[in-house]
Amino acid sequence: MDNLAIKVKQVSFSWHQRAKVLDSCSLEVPQGEFWMLLGNNGSGKSTLLRLLGGLLEPSGGELATLKPLGFVFQNPDHQLVMPTVAADIAFGLVEENLSLKQTQARVREALAAVNLLHLEKRPIYALSGGQKQRIAIAGAIARHCQVLLLDEPTALLDGDTQLELVAQVRSLVKNRGLTALWVTHRLEELDYCDGAFLLAGGRVIAQGDPQSLKRRMMQIVAQEC
Q: Within this chain, do residues 17 and 112 fall inside the same structural domain, yes or no?
């Protein structure tokens, strides 16, 4: 992968032979960096993330990522399935055939990484939206994921909690060597990433410095108004 964590080459995807959602889309994300995917509704951001996560199959092109992967959905209630915090994270480790002691150590280490160790025994229903998203991230950390894919994880959160979550992911990338690709439409979140891609018409039309792309998106919004 030549020091890349994610490589997308000329990928296409369409639903039931309708118009293409992705059309010869290409991008590369270096290892150990935090990148974001921007674009208007229908630009293909979430579809691309699902292709990378193996939830969809491309109709053409090539995809490659480091493994294992972690995936965080927009709504954490779609992926938290066990009654308590510790049980939910442990559930994701079942296929690794770890001992009880190893599983407990993985769970506690992952919760400490997202600053939620004190909630180990808390029922999932009693968590806030921001806490649920951090538990979803902890589940990926417990599986020692190398790449973390996040599909608009702040969409259902209030302003302060949004920025706390994006800052948390940036810290994990810098301190643990993770690579993260984050789908967003919130321009203020660009202040936390290393780089960004702008999608339109199913392909990347600009990439690189997040502040440059932020200014470009603000110009586009101003023109539409």
A: no
